[in-house]
Every structure is written in C-alpha cells, then in structure tokens.
Amino acid sequence: MNKHYYITTPIYYINDVPHIGHAYTTIAADIMARYKRICGFDVFFLTGTDEHGQKVEKAAEQQGISPKELADRTVHRFSDLWETLNISNTGFIRTTEERHRKVVQYIFEKVFENGDIYLGHYEDWYCVPCETYFTETQLKDGMCPDCLRPTEKLKEESYFFRLSKYEEKLLNYMENHKDFILPEVRYNEVASFLKGGLRDLSVSRTSFNWGIPVPMNKNHVVYVWFDALANYITGIGFLDDVDQFKAFWPCDAHLVGKDILRFHTVYWPSFLMSLNLEPPKHVFAHGWWTIEGHKMSKSLGNVIDPNEVVKIYGVDEFRFFLFREVPFGLDGDFSKHGIVNRINGDLANDFGNLASRSVTMIGKFLKGKIDRPEKKGGMDEYVEDNVRRLVEEYQKEMEVFAYHKALQNAFEIISILNKYIDTEAPWRLAKEGDNRIKTVLYNIWNSLRIVAMLLYPYMPSKSQAIWNALGIGKPIDKILFDTEKIFYFMDDLGTIDKINPIFPRIEG
Ligand code: MSP
What we know:
Elements lengths: L3 E10 L6 H19 L3 E9 L3 H10 L3 H18 L6 E4 L3 H16 L3 E11 L4 E3 L17 E10 L5 H10 L4 E2 L1 H12 L5 E2 L1 E2 L7 E2 L2 E6 L1 H6 L1 H4 L7 H7 L4 E5 L3 H14 L7 E5 L2 E3 L2 E2 L10 H8 L1 H11 L6 E3 L1 H31 L13 H20 L3 H22 L1 H6 L4 H20 L4 H10 L11 H4 L24
Parallel strand pairs: 1-2, 1-12, 2-3, 7-13, 12-13, 14-16
Antiparallel strand pairs: 4-5, 4-6, 6-8, 9-11, 10-11, 14-15
Bound molecules: 5'-O-[(L-methionyl)-sulphamoyl]adenosine (MSP).
C-alpha cells in the first residue's frame, strides 16, 4: 500500500485581499507537500476559502450583491495567487459548495444525536453596529472593544456543543501525543488553557442568515467555525469518496497561524472525537509577519500584496526568503533590506556563484562531461561524509517543520563546496594535467545536484534549472529522495557547459 500524507492550510476569508500572511501558510504547506512527494508519499494538499459568516454577508450588502456573488467574484484572487506562487495543491474547497453543505449538516446532526449538541440560550454583551458578541472581559470599560460604542446584554437561542465534556479527553490525548501541537511553546499554551476549564460552545446563530442552515431548525445557521473546520474532512471526500477519506484521515498536519490555534487544537479535535473520528496527528502554528517593523493593517496601508513582491524579487526568491529569514514558528519582519540581503548573499553570491563556477569548470576542463571518479584523495572523504551527515540532518529537521534549520544544512553544504573548490583548485589540476580533476569535479557535480534537491521544496523552478544545467534531464519533482541523496555516477548526462545566471543580484 502506498504511504499517504495529508496536509492543509486554513481556508481563507473571502472578504479579504490575499496578503503575505496567507501566502506564508500556503507556501509552508507546499514545501512539505513537495518534500513528502519526493519521499515517495501519495500527498493530498488541501487549501480553499471560507465563504460564510456575518462579515461576508455585510460586505456583500454594502456592494449591493449577494454573498455568494461576492465570493464568486473574489475567490480567484486566491486561486490565481496560488498559481503564481507555484503552489501544488491537490484540492481546493469553497465552503459554499454543495458537497460541503452536506457534510456540515450530516456531522451537526450526528453530534446532536450523540447528545453533544443541545439547545440553550446564549447570553453576552452585544455590539449592535458590529453585530458581535463580546464577553465581559473583552469589553473596554463596558464598551465594544472594536468601535468603542455602548454594548447591551442580549440573549438569543442557540445550539451548544458540550465542549466541557472533552477537557479531560483532550488533555489525555495531548499527554500521549507530545508532538500533537507544534512548536512546543504552543503545546504548553493549549495545555494551560485546557487546565483552566472549558465552557460549552455556541455552535449556531440566529442573528444573520449567511451560513449553512442547522438541519433540525432552519431558524439557525451553523457557527462559521464549525462549518469552516469541517472543510478538512469534506475536502478529501468524507461522504462521497470513502476510500480516499480512509486513506488520508487522520490528517498529518494542519498548518495554521498562532491566532487560530485554539480552534484547531481544542474545538476541532473535540468535534472529531464526538464523531468517533481520530484527531489530526499534528497542528503546527506559525508566527506573524510585521512589515518594516509595523503591524500589517489596512488602515496603515502597509498590507503586502505577494503578487507585487514576486514581480520585483521572483517567486522562488520570495518563497526562500520567508523560510530562511525566520525560524518557522516565530514572528518575523518583512523588509526590503532583509529580502535583498538574502537574495544577494545566500542566493547570488553563495549558491548561484557556486553553480555557475562549477558548470563552467566542467565545461572548460572536462569538455562538459563528468567521468567515473578515480581514487579518492584530498578533501574528498570530508566532503562526502559531510554531505551525507547534512542530508540526514536536513531530513530530521523537515520532519518537525524546522524549515530554517533544514535550509541551514543545505547552505552548510554550499559553504563546504566553496571551500573544497578553493582548496582543491581545479584550475591548477587542469594546468598540471592531473587526472584528479575528474574526481574533484565529479564530487562537486554530485554535491551540487544533492543541494538542488534539498532546496527543491523551497525553490522548485530554480532547483530544476540547476539540475538542467548539470545535464540531468529528469524532472526534479519525479525523483525519489532516497535514491538521489547518495553519490552516484550517471552516464546518460547532457553536456554540462552552459548555465544562465540563476539568481541575478538585486540593487537594494
Ligand atoms: N477563515 C479562518 C480560518 C479557518 S480554517 C478552518 C481565517 N482566515 S484568515 O484569512 O483570516 O486567516 C488565515 C491565516 O492567515 C491564519 O492562519 C492567520 O494566522 C494568517 N495570517 C493573517 N495575518 C498574518 C500575518 N500578518 N502573518 C502571518 N500570518 C497571518 O482565520
């Protein structure tokens, strides 16, 4: 049986314009999806859009169109951006699709039948202009924390989910699955939240209409998070492709921002437990990006459009920067200065120069053909041993989403290779007519091929360009990591003598 791997992004609110935060989670998922594919997994990678709720209803009203029309007009902003960013998702789900309505109504009913949903009353402080409930502690001096206008105590009928029943079960699950929530700091955050006790959760609304009707009471619509979280099972065919669902559930990884951690690690696993489905294996919460040191916000006008960034710097450069610059899991700052430095330093100077020097030397000294290596000598063993070690470390880091460390390993190989070239000086070997040049250039060729493979999940197009320049015809997305991570000889290579500049320098 094939190995299966299932990874998701959050589904994005349709009323927002896609920005760097959305791109970040989606690229992170793409990196893992591509990595797992070359490790031989059958990967399902799901992303999509969250299209219900009061905010969408309101935005549509302001534009004088229906909420569905609004969603239809805006969904392509996301799907187009994913194409631009070379995202390899296998599924795209919109919560307004019929297949999703069926799943949400089915599971709402099941949970109700299991006795975990009951009808009650929701009572809290309501801000009429914002149409939002707040708890006592959220209020600012009794006023709405968003618009600072007065709030009033309101009571509405609502269905509740017995979240309180799952406190112990969740804590047990976490105890037995220490890597359920990553990184560790988020695990601890959720554990202490659970220990503080859980209140039952309101899972229906009567104050607006734009949502999936509650199956047993059409005056209610299903709470938008109950609806949205269910996308993860709809997307792999929960009701309409049972074999596929069984192959991919439980999900291997939900990637989310730290702001929506609780929904994914407390509410979602509880709903699943109530349905007798297994919780996801991992939820990884990443940090937030600021822009040039400031919080990104519409009112500051500093929202970064990824389409614009890639026009200036390039798609692979942007993908690389996001994960090389900041440890995945921590907050980071996006600045022009930062991205230009990374491109000119890591990519143009270190990696790009290495690739072009190497290809040029193979072209010039070996007429574009590498040969079966002679006896080993000089730094050969050192290079081979270190490449092997760093590849292993890279794999370990990838397994725990430590993307920045995985990249560091790849760049350590690059710096070892630069040292190797300087020490072994192939130009001198060529001048002296020393046969050892074949071994040295073969080692460089092979290590460079491996580095390009390690960087492939991050920079798919540039890595392919390097493989092409190394004379390898194979599409890099069809390779297998385990067979390609070793030093070997290939004799059906194209001529290795030309390389266009892969990473041009950028003026800062
Ligand atoms: N629709 C919900 C998710 C439902 S999932 C079942 C939602 N959507 S969102 O569009 O508002 O946000 C999606 C993701 O973008 C979140 O993971 C959030 O953390 C991320 N980001 C939003 N702004 C961000 C930054 N400034 N930086 C990094 N990521 C941020 O929430």
